[in-house]
Design goal:
About 30% of the residues lie in helices and about 30% in strands. By secondary structure, it is an alpha/beta fold. It folds into two domains: about 120 residues, Immunoglobulin-like; about 230 residues, Zn-dependent exopeptidases (Aminopeptidase, 3-Layer(aba) Sandwich), CATH 3.40.630. α4 packs across α10 and α8 crosses α10. The longest helix has 24 residues.
Length: about 400
């Protein structure tokens, strides 16, 4: 009987069809860290299914910190995450230095991603999946009780439903940008109050209207206001409006405050770990509206904030903040002179109103209502017009850069 290769080829072909083919590695897009007393909770979000997870914990040895490690098999690090933080060979370093946690280190090791959390004391590691695309990791000091102030899996899942970049039915492509302009505070919440009795809520409403009008006039934008009168809107409701309308940009406008009348200047914020203690204090003041909402109620998404200190999706918001801030400082300096402008810069802090929006989002602090000269300027239509025109130009510059990419 003559020998033939045909049956052998058929068998080999069938085996190849059955052989597992490696899929695209899921990319690690976000890392969020929640800090409590002797308890930290890490949430990592991927753009695909979470694969196998390996974890281990190592005690401190000499000058080396204790380290908790978990490895995501078959994953990669999203380049945007690398851009947002401090790049190191093979990965990213995210400094923390708070409540016993020193830093996070994300490393690409072959086809896996290793997440290492350096701590003052050794911690036990436990992991659980949330919705297939997210991994929740608890780091607890042995013998310590879990910190009940940290968001639980149900709260995190509620938050994720609002902010994950999922494909949505948003209708046909738009021919003009859709921008939400948010005037801070309002209603029973006047915000900061100046020495002359100026209410932050009144100033920022006037400024928001001017910004909105400029965006419509100069950029042909579709503008949506979170409030157009002296009404209180919960912080979660402001973000929910932006998400529901599928906005391209979220601008939250505020006036700053300090216990010292000597503190003055202009700042622009985007969401991330607080730049410094002063930035954290600003966020704490603006976030008070969460607990003063009607009935004092907080929904699950609000509770996510807690001690959230790391978010790895801030690159677009940072670019928007830089464009707007540079435009404002340039225009105010040109009008008033360098000696009468205090540029505090672009900073980061954890603002509730910036947590849930899916689009690039910034919080602009126009000036200090508690500083005599700043307060006087803020009350004048001339200064408001200068700020509004500069904000519009900054947004326009951002859109041009984004359109070219």
């Amino acid at each position: 009987m003559p020998f033939t290769l045909r049956p052998l080829l058929i068998l080999v072909s069938c085996l190849l069809l059955l052989w597992p083919v490696p899929g695209r590695a899921a990319a690690l897009e976000r890392v969020l860290l929640f800090l409590g007393q002797e308890h930290a909770r890490v949430l990592v979000l991927l753009d695909g299914e979470v694969g196998e997870v390996q974890s281990r914990s190592m005690p401190a040895v000499g000058a080396a910190a204790a380290r908790s490690v978990f490895t995501l098999e078959g994953a990669s690090i999203d380049p945007k995450l690398v851009e947002a933080y401090r790049a190191i060979p093979g990965g990213v370093e995210i400094p923390v230095d708070n409540l016993g946690v020193r830093r996070l280190v994300l490393s690409q090791i072959g086809g896996d991603v290793q997440v290492a959390v350096d701590t003052m004391r050794a911690r036990g590691v436990s992991t659980s999946l949330i919705g297939g695309r997210a991994l929740l990791v608890d780091l607890l000091v042995p013998g310590a009780a879990p910190d009940q102030s940290l968001p639980d899996a149900a709260a995190l899942q509620s938050w994720m439903r609002g902010v994950l970049n999922v494909t949505a039915d948003v209708g046909p492509p738009r021919d003009r940008p859709r921008i939400v302009v948010d005037a801070g505070h309002g209603g029973h919440d006047p915000g900061a109050v100046g020495h002359a009795g100026t209410h932050e809520s009144d100033i920022v409403l006037a400024l928001a209207r001017k910004v909105g009008a400029g965006l419509e006039r100069e950029l042909g934008a579709e503008v949506i206001y979170t409030r157009d009168d002296d009404t209180f809107i919960p912080l979660s409701g402001r973000a929910a409006l932006a998400n529901a309308r599928d906005a391209d940009i979220f601008l939250s406008i505020h006036a700053n405050a300090s216990v010292s009348p000597d503190v003055w200047g202009i700042t622009t914020f985007y969401l991330d770990v607080a730049s410094d203690a002063a930035a954290a204090a600003v966020a704490a003041r603006e976030n008070r509206a969460v607990v003063t909402a009607a009935g004092g109620a907080q929904d699950a998404a609000d509770l996510v904030m807690g001690e959230l200190v790391v978010s790895g999706t801030s690159a677009l918001s940072r670019r928007l903040a830089l464009e707007v801030h540079q435009s404002v400082i340039g225009q105010v300096t040109s009008t008033y002179g360098a000696s009468r402008v205090h540029d505090i810069g672009v900073q980061t802090a954890m603002f509730y109103v910036l947590v849930s929006p899916r689009m690039p989002s910034i919080l602009f602090e126009a000036s200090f209502v508690t500083h005599p000269e700043d307060e006087l300027r803020l009350r004048t239509p001339t200064f408001q017009n200068i700020l509004a025109d500069a904000i519009v130009r900054g947004v326009g510059s951002y859109l041009e850069v984004a359109r070219d990419e």
